[in-house]
From TrEMBL:
<protein>
    <submittedName>
        <fullName>Iron ABC transporter permease</fullName>
    </submittedName>
</protein>
<dbReference type="InterPro" id="IPR000522">
    <property type="entry name" value="ABC_transptr_permease_BtuC"/>
</dbReference>
<feature type="transmembrane region" description="Helical">
    <location>
        <begin position="326"/>
        <end position="347"/>
    </location>
</feature>
<keyword id="KW-0812">Transmembrane</keyword>
<feature type="transmembrane region" description="Helical">
    <location>
        <begin position="109"/>
        <end position="132"/>
    </location>
</feature>
<dbReference type="Pfam" id="PF01032">
    <property type="entry name" value="FecCD"/>
</dbReference>
<keyword id="KW-1133">Transmembrane helix</keyword>
<feature type="transmembrane region" description="Helical">
    <location>
        <begin position="75"/>
        <end position="97"/>
    </location>
</feature>
<comment type="similarity">
    <text>Belongs to the binding-protein-dependent transport system permease family. FecCD subfamily.</text>
</comment>
<feature type="transmembrane region" description="Helical">
    <location>
        <begin position="262"/>
        <end position="284"/>
    </location>
</feature>
<feature type="transmembrane region" description="Helical">
    <location>
        <begin position="211"/>
        <end position="230"/>
    </location>
</feature>
<dbReference type="InterPro" id="IPR037294">
    <property type="entry name" value="ABC_BtuC-like"/>
</dbReference>
<keyword id="KW-1003">Cell membrane</keyword>
<feature type="transmembrane region" description="Helical">
    <location>
        <begin position="299"/>
        <end position="319"/>
    </location>
</feature>
<keyword id="KW-0472">Membrane</keyword>
<feature type="transmembrane region" description="Helical">
    <location>
        <begin position="138"/>
        <end position="157"/>
    </location>
</feature>
<feature type="transmembrane region" description="Helical">
    <location>
        <begin position="24"/>
        <end position="44"/>
    </location>
</feature>
Length: 354
């Protein structure tokens, strides 16, 4: 009997090692695909370059020629890396929102955070209103950040009220979306022609105004927050089993939700404040990661990072090739990709519990 138990335990360990190795291989394959997508993104534009030229400009910029070096390093690389950092940030934010709210439809876009950021940006673009008076020079991104944080904190504190269910939180998020969209429409109605054009362009989402400073800020927020999530990887995984089971395992569910939502709010608000409204990345990225590596946060979190980055990087490539000579707003492309996935997700959840 003892030998059989030992053999069963050894078999279980072998199966787990094989599963972990398979997940690592999947993550490695996704990372390679992301590297290729970044290179292709930098190669495409009004003047197309070959991948060998891009590689030459990256490895030895001093010998690649001034024009190629400037185009790759000063123009295209910030855009390509902004797509990576924004995609990863939104995907991780969506992944942890889905985890702590136990809802597959939770994301910065569906819970009204992106709509709140759009309204905040429009306040600056249309009325010249700076919510934080000390940041007039950066009033558009600062306004967007503050309003996004307000929406995220409202969602969190609403979730802590007695009797509030997960379905209620999603409905509150949808209500926020409609509320901020209505307020945004009112501002657009009152705006001048020039301000209206600026608001419409901002709400479509675009990476074309990416700079190295914005890349560094979004990357820094991502680098700081990921270890905080990884430190709570076991607790977040346990939370997927339900509040009662997680609590029985020693998880302080209320404190974990509070800390996670605060970090998620920051992670979702910063990218949106820089690039505008980019929907569905925070919804689609986590679900792709969940399908390929499962729920274990040790693999799911890196998977969400890579899937979100790959999704937005690939979208950036698509935005350049759909209409030759033009770069389409990236938020439009993500919506075209995300809406069919959204419908598939809704109908699949009618047949099975999430």
């Amino acid at each position: 009997m003892g030998a059989a138990a030992i053999e069963t335990g050894a078999t279980g360990r072998d199966q787990y090692r094989a599963l972990a190795f398979r997940r690592i291989l999947i993550l490695t394959g996704l990372a390679v695909a992301l590297a290729v997508s970044i290179a292709v993104d930098m190669a495409l534009g009004p003047a197309n370059y070959s991948l060998s030229q891009v590689l030459s400009a990256l490895v030895s910029p001093e010998t690649s020629g001034d024009q190629l070096r400037v185009v790759i390093w000063d123009i295209r690389m910030p855009i390509a890396l902004m797509a990576v950092t924004v995609g990863a940030s939104l995907s991780v934010a969506g992944a942890q929102m889905q985890t702590i709210l136990s809802n597959p439809l939770a994301s910065p876009f569906t819970l009204g955070i992106s709509a709140a950021a759009s309204f905040g940006a429009a306040l600056g673009l249309v009325g010249g209103v700076a919510i934080f008076p000390g940041a007039v020079q950066y009033m558009v991104p600062v306004n967007a950040f503050i309003m996004a944080m307000v929406a995220a904190l409202f969602i969190h504190f609403a979730s802590t009220l007695r009797g509030v269910t997960v379905e209620t939180i999603v409905l509150l998020g949808i209500a926020l979306v409609f509320t901020f969209n209505a307020a945004l429409s009112l501002l657009e109605y009152l705006a001048s022609e020039q301000a209206l054009a600026a608001v419409v362009f901002w709400t479509m989402g675009s990476l074309t105004k990416a700079t190295w400073d914005k890349v560094f800020v979004t990357a820094a927020i991502l680098v700081v927050t990921l270890p905080l999530f990884m430190r709570n990887a076991w607790a977040l995984t346990a939370l997927r089993l339900g509040d009662d089971k997680a609590a029985s395992m020693g998880v302080n569910v209320r404190r974990l939700r509070l800390h996670t939502m605060l970090i998620v709010s920051l992670l979702a608000a910063i990218p949106v404040s820089f690039v505008g409204t980019i929907g569905f990345v925070g919804l689609v990225g986590p679900h792709i990661a969940r399908m390929v590596v499962g729920e274990d946060q040790r693999f799911f979190l890196p998977g969400a990072v890579i899937c979100g980055a790959l999704l937005l990087s690939t979208t950036s490539v698509v935005s350049k090739v759909l209409i030759p000579g033009a770069i389409l707003p990236i938020g439009v492309i993500t919506a075209l990709v995300g809406v069919p996935f959204f419908f598939v997700l809704i109908f699949s959840n009618r047949r099975r519990a999430w």
